[in-house]
Amino acid sequence: MSRTSTSRTSTIRTSTIRLRVTAVALAASACLLGGVGAAQASTSGAAAPTATSGRAVTATETATFTGSGTGGSMGAAIESATNVALSYAQAAGWQRSQCYRLASDVRQSGGWFTATSKVFCQR
């Protein structure tokens, strides 16, 4: 093997190692951020190896909405407050099936009940 050939092989190996390190760093960054991460790097050339690292990680988006409502009973007040919170969620682009009631607080004043309901959404 000539000196030029050895130098070229060394350069390809060094480039491949750098690309693998970069691919691993990109995949690790995506995982830390909780996003979808798949890093791919390759060198130019006919027999150049391709370094692929990382796997897809599903990202989860969450949101919380709060609504208030009144009713003649505790259940009616909670349902009213939950419906208000769900309408806020729908206005923000969430579907009702992606949300559930996380917590409620009911207070009585006279013959009426006032409730506050917190809705948690996840996709």
TrEMBL record:
**What does the UniProt keyword field contain?**
Signal
The record ties this protein, via PROSITE patterns, to: PROKAR_LIPOPROTEIN
The signal peptide here is 1-41
This one is known as Uncharacterized protein
